[in-house]
């Protein structure tokens, strides 16, 4: 395969091809999302949605900011249990009230409801970082539930992640190698692509799904 030089990266020897696959997308975009959340040791970070990107962000937080607390919001009980296994201090449903006000929340879902729910859990000056390629139309009416004093007042802010740049990928791969990250992956043959997509659609997610060609 021929690709532009600017789109090619040196994969650290620590990773197999299958392990590297989610690092180049979910991992790198998670890295940029974390950077945009203004991370620091001791902060309280929320993650709403806990798939490929979310579980890698949690691992990065635990490595770089060991005194930080990570709170996970996910519809699927299995995803919540997985988050606790990786070190989340608390995990609840997407619409749950966080036990403590959060300094930042990273949203990795394609829905609107988690945006509204995340804003209610932010403390004064908190930031919501939306890490999503798109937001679907299905639950857009959820935005009508926005209540200014509850969701937006006290200088809360919303920031989107547009795209990752080359520097993000390079820096993240170096960090991932230092951390010896072992992403949770499920392998599928190319012939099983539809099954993998169906499992994503129905919420059967633990880490990342990788197609082996």
Please summarize what this structure is.
The protein has helices spanning 17-36, 52-64, 77-86, 113-121, 148-152, 166-179, 193-201, and strands spanning 44-48, 69-73, 90-92, 102-107, 122-130, 157-160, 185-189, 208-212.
Name the helicity range.
Answer: 25-40%
Which stretches of 5+ consecutive residues score pLDDT under 50?
none
Q: Describe the sheet with the most strands.
A: 6 strands, parallel
Query: Which structural class fits the helix and strand makeup?
Result: alpha/beta
Please name the CATH architecture.
3-Layer(aba) Sandwich
Strand fraction equals 15-25%
* Distance N to C terminus: 13 Å
What would the principal axes of the Cα set say about the shape? Answer: globular
Q: Could you give the order of the helices and strands?
A: HEHEHEEHEHEHEHE
Question: So, the CATH homologous superfamily?
Answer: NAD(P)-binding Rossmann-like Domain
Could you walk me through the main structural features you see in this protein, from its secondary elements to its overall organization?
The protein is an alpha/beta fold. The protein is built from 7 helices and 8 strands; from the N terminus they run H-E-H-E-H-E-E-H-E-H-E-H-E-H-E. The strands form 2 sheets. The chain has a 6-stranded parallel β-sheet with strand order 3-2-1-4-5-6, with helices on both faces. Strands 7-8 form a two-stranded parallel sheet. Strand 4, helix 4 and strand 5 form a beta-alpha-beta unit. The two termini are 13 Å apart. The relative contact order is 0.18.
């Amino acid at each position: 395969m021929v690709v532009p030089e600017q789109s090619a990266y040196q994969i650290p020897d620590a990773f197999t091809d299958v392990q590297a696959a989610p690092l180049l997308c979910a991992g790198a975009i998670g890295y940029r999302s974390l950077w945009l959340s203004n991370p620091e040791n001791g902060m309280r970070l929320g993650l709403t949605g806990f798939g490929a990107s979310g579980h890698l962000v949690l691992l990065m937080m635990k490595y770089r900011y060991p005194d930080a607390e990570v709170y996970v919001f996910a519809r699927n009980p299995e995803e919540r249990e997985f988050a606790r296994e990786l070190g989340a201090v608390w995990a609840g449903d997407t619409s749950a009230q966080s036990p403590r006000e959060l300094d930042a929340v990273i949203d990795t879902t394609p829905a609107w409801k988690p945006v509204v729910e995340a804003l209610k859990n932010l403390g004064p000056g908190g930031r919501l970082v939306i890490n999503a390629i798109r937001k679907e139309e299905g639950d857009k009416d959820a935005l009508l539930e926005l209540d200014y004093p509850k969701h937006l007042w006290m200088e809360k802010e919303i920031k989107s992640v547009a795209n990752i740049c080359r520097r993000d990928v390079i820096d993240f791969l170096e960090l991932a190698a230092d951390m010896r990250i072992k992403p949770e992956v499920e392998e599928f043959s190319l012939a099983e692509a539809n099954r993998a997509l169906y499992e994503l659609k129905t919420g059967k997610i633990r880490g990342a799904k990788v197609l082996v060609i």
